[in-house]
Sequence to fold (431 residues):
Amino acid sequence: MQANLEILEGLGRRFDISVPMDQLEAEVQSRLKRMARNVRMDGFRPGKAPLSAVARVHGPGVRQDVLGETLQARFGEAVQAHQLKVAGYPRFEAKPSEAAAGMIFSASFEVYPDVAIGALGDGKLSRPVVEVGEADVAKTLDILRKQRQTFAPADRAAQEGDLVRFDFEGKVDGVPFEGGKAEGFGAVIGEGRLLKDFEQNLVGVSAGERKAFDVAFPADYAARELAGKTARFEIRVQDVQAPVLPPLDADFARMLGIEDGDLDKLKAEVKTNLEREVTRRIKGKMKEQAMELLLGNSTLDVPKSLVAMETERLMKMTEADMQQRGVQTMKLSADMFTGQAERRVRLGLILAEIVQKNTLAAQPEQLHALIEEQAQSYEEPEQVVQWYLQNPERMQEIESLALEENVVAWVAGQAQVEDVTTSFDELMGRA
Fold:
């Protein structure tokens, strides 16, 4: 076997691999003979078909299998001989050959790049410093109460937060359209469930009132037949209902899992949950900054084959997610994902280089701590811990998370980190 290495553009490499015909055919015949002992073929008892008949029916498939396995084996030997790290999969192509004793194939592939991590000393990271206070707990309790609010009839005009029930009919250029008519439809003003033009016209209406108004559909509206058009709506208000929040009492505490109804315990639990979310958000912001710093200070060529594989993976994930959510599957283009895929591959190569060179492998105690941290968000944390420990795929996700945390800590040790006092609402993006 001969395998000559050719250096192509960028990370591209190519082997010319010679496959001796005598070895190939010897293996094909050996497999056909073994197959003939048990194969079932019409007109013959099991295992009694002549070798010529078995070869006629199964020979092409067996030969293709042997050739594929031989090429992979020869390719592996050549890669090892040249001490290469192959990125992705090779592409084999037959080459014209006058030699009757063998066939020649070219194996085109890419290798992993050299990754150069630049100095990070001038890089700056902002680390939010957040203290969860009583006001944050009180605001969260108000949100929890609002999530469990009920509605009661109100003898007044509708205002922000009210539930309005009404009949409506819409027309475009005087013509009704699909989905443009309903009776007893309910919407809470301010929730954003309706188009802004429609919702604004509900403010101030009263039970029994009739009203007509125009609504402009945005150009990117989901129903394409309405996109960019203006519809005339007529509504009849059935009733207006005002929100009623549950009182902050023992019953409310029990509703949220505090068995004895102790409000102080509820507030303590809410604060613990907020602090856990603060920690998660701070980690996320530090990670985002660290990754951007690494991307901007690293030099490497990105294997096109890995980008193509990641693009395909992202497309399949998106299609599966759309199907799961019941969204009509649209035709997805690879161009929609190439940029994201290239970034993910580039970042993955950078992280792998840093982990290897700085011995940042995840430690068992770190993995267990991360699992415990994830489990605390659930009612039965011990069951969640066991679920992680018994699931190799989930454990791999935890290990990836640990490696990312190790890299972020390493970057923070190299760069300039400024602690910035931040309010809880600012961290949550609500300020």
Observations:
- The chain has three domains: 3-112, 124-133+262-428, 150-244.
- The chain has a mean pLDDT of 92.
- Residues 150-244 form a domain with the Chitinase A; domain 3 fold (CATH 3.10.50.40).
